[in-house]
Amino acid sequence: MQSYYDPKDLPRFSEIGKDAPELAKKFFEYYGAVMAEGELTVREKSLIALAVAHAVQCPYCIDAYAKECLEQGSNTAEMTEAVHVAAAIRGGASLVHGLQMRNAADKLSL
Amino acid sequence: MTLEPRDCLMQEARSALCPSTCVGFAQTLARHGLRLEREQTHTLQINTGLLCNQACRHCHLEAGPKRTEIMDRETMDQVADYAERGGFQSADVTGGAPEMVPEIDHLLTRLAEAVPRVMLRSNLTAIRDSAREHLGLLCRDLKIVLVCSLPATHASQTDAQRGGGVMDASVRTLQWLNTLGYGQSGTGLELNLVSNPAGAFMPPDQGRTEERFRRDLQRKWGIVFNNLYTFANVPLGRFRTWLEASGNYEQYMTRLTETFNPEAVAGLMCRSLVSVDWKGDLHDCDFHLAKAIPLDGTRRHVATMSGPPLPGTPIATAEYCYACTAGAGFT
Ligand code: SF4
Question: What distance in Å separates the CA atoms of residue B324 and residue B254, rounded to the nearest whole number?
């Protein structure tokens, strides 16, 4: 089946280094450092990553971080709440831009 | 521990369904210069049978309410005699649900006299059945260590693995065990939990999961316990059937093989434990018991054994051994 997304591409992520290996190396080092245990635990970071994956609607990241969250001991209730956080921020971001609309409309209106 | 390749002593009970990505366990050991053989065997694991009030979806033994295999009193006596004669340090009573075996009181009482430490594996629902409440009191009096299954602190995962309503029932049982003194400091009554993942993924880090369980169980229900162990699900029995039916088998086996940790081999439970089934026959572990693979390649009954299997006795290997060596390992 032809599709823009193929799950088999996920393990090939490192191939983005082709033709720009130095940049890829820098990115993967940074990525690894960001996702490692720090002030936040790996479990907490995985839940944030899952929420962001939904905000940016990346099917690869959703697959990867659904599994990672489970393996970090999160349950589906926590993961669902994380997705709601993404939805709330996305929804809120749209709504708060309603003030731009108001400002623009007010300026044009009597 | 002597660690050298010695392929001829490793029986590869690998299934034909093993995916192409899965290299035989014996081969993997050999590649790391390891071999699987016994050291001092100090634990006698006793499988009292396959009867259970639950039919958990990850059960490697396919235990359930319709199973009729259970240990009789004569075998119990032979097992307890062997435990004593063999100088075992601990006995680990499992099933099915051992609580449902009619003469379980007799076995526990005899074992408590025979070995210094007796553990009883409980699914947290059978022990609270009104007909069996006395068992909790007996365990308390005999100072039996309870090892109880609780995959998660949230009903969605616990009930998905173990059946509807199991989370609520488990919480009530844990609270009751706490009132008996189990898990409370200073009582000497040990209450340990075991968490298997509710699906085709690896278990989380044991130390961190223990911290989370401690916090969640205390905060939500005021429950206390001693230790928590996290184990990978073994691709056997009902869990394997589910892996295949849900299309997860290949990726699960690949994950297990990819996370093979050679350091875990030294601490594998089969090196220090021997498992006896409800008929009294010996196996290297409860997983080989499920596949009817006998200890050292021949059928051996407890009544004919003078002591534990000797150090150096080879241990059979199978593809599901990868579940024991994934990450931190299954000890
Ligand atoms: S399944 Fe695990 S415990 Fe059993 S023989 Fe294999 S490594 Fe040892």
Answer: 14
Tell me the per-residue pLDDT of A21-51, one tens digit each, with 9 for 90 and over: 999 999 999 999 999 999 999 999 999 999 9
The answer, yes or no, to whether ipTM is higher than 0.85 is no
**Going by DSSP bridges, is the β-strand pair B191-195/B90-94 parallel, antiparallel, or unpaired?**
unpaired
- Nearest residue in A to B232, CA atom: A71
Question: What predicted TM-score, i.e. pTM, was given to this entire model?
Answer: 0.84
Probe target for ligand 1 pocket from B233, B263, B265, B285, with the most ligand atoms within 8 Å of CB: B285
DSSP code string of B233-255? PPSSHHHHHHHHHTT-HHHHHHH
A70 contacts on B by Cβ (under 8 Å): 197, 199, 201
**How many Å lie between the alpha carbon of B204 and the closest alpha carbon of chain A?**
5
Coil vs helix vs strand at B109: helix
Beta-sheet strand order (sheet of B43-47): B227-230, B191-195, B145-149, B117-122, B90-94, B43-47, B273-276, B282-283
